[in-house]
Amino acid sequence: xxxxxxxxxxxxxxxxxxxxxxxxxxxxxxxxxxxxxxxxxxxxxxxxxxxxxxxxxxxxxxxxxxxxxxxxxxxxxxxxxxxxxxxxxxxxxxxxx
Length: 97
Hints:
- The mean pLDDT is 94.
- It is built from 2 helices and 7 strands.
- It has helices at 28-39, 78-86, and strands at 7-13, 16-18, 22-25, 41-47, 59-62, 69-73, 90-94.
- By secondary structure, the chain is α/β, with parallel strands linked by helices.
C-alpha cells in the first residue's frame, strides 16, 4: 500500500541519528516502512530531540542528505547543528532559550 502513496511532507522520528549512519531504529520492519515513506515524500522533516544526536541504532533507514529540515530542542550541541547546516539541512530549534 505504501508503494502507491505520495506525501508532500514526511515527518520522521528516529531512535538515533549520526552523520555517518543517518537515522536509525531498532526494528528492521519499521526501517523498511520509513524508507518507503521517505522515497515517496517531497520533503522529509526529521523530528529528533537532542538525546538522539550522536547515537546510532541497529538498522539505518535514511541519510542526512535525504532530510530537508531537522526539528530539535535547544539543548542540541552546536556541532550537530553545524553538521546539518553544512549539509544544506535547515535546523529548527524549539524550547527554552
